[in-house]
Design brief:
The protein has about 600 residues and is mostly helical. The protein contains 25 helices and two strands. It has a two-stranded antiparallel sheet with strand order 1-2. The longest helix has about 40 residues. The C terminus is likely disordered.
Length: about 600
Amino acid sequence: MSLQALTYFVVGLSFAIYIAIAIWSRAHSTGDFYIAGKGVSPVANGMATAADWMSAASFISMAGLIAFLGYDGSVYLMGWTGGYVLLALLLAPYLRKFGKFTVPEFIAERYYSKTARIVAVICLIFISFTYVAGQMRGVGIVFSRFLEVDVTVGLLIGMGVVFVYAVLGGMKGITYTQVAQYCVLIFAYTVPAIFIAIQLTGNPIPQLAFGGAVADGTPLLDKLNDIVTSLGFNEYTSGTKSRIDVFCITMALMVGTAGLPHVIVRFFTVPRVRDARVSAGWALLFIAILYTTAPAVGSMARYNLLETIQPGEVGAVDGNLAYAERPGWFETWEQTGLVTFEDKNGDGRIQYYNDANPEFAAQARAFGWQGNELGVDRDIMVLANPEIAGLPNWVIALVAAGGIAAALSTAAGLLLVISAAVSHDLIKGIFLPNISERRELLAGRIAAAFAIMIAGYLGFDPPGWVAQVVAFAFGLAAASLFPVILLGIFFKRVNKQGAIAGMLAGLLFTYGYIEFFKGLFLKWAGAPWGVNTADNWLFGISPEGIGVVGMILNFIVALTVSHLTAPPPDRIQHMVENIRVPRELEEHHL
């Protein structure tokens, strides 16, 4: 069976499973639609949470970033994994005990304000649509390569599948679909990693192969260092980012994880408060399987790419791959536009090196090279790695199914929180408080449908690499929602004026900084207006890490305004105390 036919079969089978689960678990009430009726077991919720959170950024883009950034890419591993510790300890059990449907609903009741609810909805929509843009880019990449359809057609297919199980099944359908998607994506990620680990080092465990040796006895990382430095790149195992930027990116990703609304809402779906903490532990375990594998995948992908493109001695006449002899994977990815070649010196060979390094660029000109000729999109490395390594077609098809599962699982969770924000927080909570449950459920489904269409549009012209866009979403979450949720649980004195001012200050500062340097969404306005170099960054902090400054600003503004205005009513302060009392102790006193 051809690769295309096999891919259609594997991906089509996975879609059929997702849709069948959605039909089986169709939502019949708003409780089912928003929080799966609070009947999900901790293990299933942990698996669904892992799939919800391990998006296209984790599956497709993170190892690609590690492949090209090396040590600097470790910030994504540390930040995204460490965030779950914060979530399990500081937020999940308390929010579950509160027992509402959405994060804006918690903020509205804790801060006794409809305005606070509206501001929280605005923050949630900013975060979620930024995040979903990265997922839809992932869907487009997978479809355009493996199903060999136009990106537009691929996005429409992906939107259709999400529409069925998100609109029909709601949180109940999404939860059990995400359990299946986790199984697909983790199998698709680890199987090729095992194959390639055996090929390169003879060790079947990728985590151990990462520290193993290649065929000539040289440790894999030492060999990779030798190759990349010979081409003018920085050492793979050394970093170039400043300490403050590494700290801020890591912290922004950690705190952003704990403030992501589509992750938080997962802990509303379990039966008991204790189950929220337990399911966070399960989620961390399921996530760790992929995250401990990612460094090995990134290093092996970079090694395979360089060995293919630069098989001989640097500078030798026959040291570079002849373009006419390029392998099949190169040609097929070239057709997607994600691998490009420009023969600048007309020798018919592919010169791939760091021409931004002045010292090596001068040396390269002595070889007759006139600039780097190869462009490789970072987001293709995990998807292309099995092809570069010459793995069987069924493994390549499995990777395609895994990439789509990762993107769609997170997209569905994001679209549902957007839907809930519109139907439950705005329509029912603000404009039509007496709306019937049946009409609210209908409004939720209509809102989900519109959100899917907007998400598909963002997928046509995404604002950056998948992991980069997702990092921006985490920064926005860290700067806007996390502080007011944390203060709402642990600080009785914080009032509605402080919460509203803090959210707006954190969101506007962080979004403005990202927009200034990256032109995230305002491309039509000629953005970015600034120059995205470390010399222009505030305190040397990149846009990916600026959420930490936004978070600090949020805390300062919220606490200052709260102490300059009237304290919250006594009933609110008693509610905060009650949220922090463990369930068992509360029942003992009763």
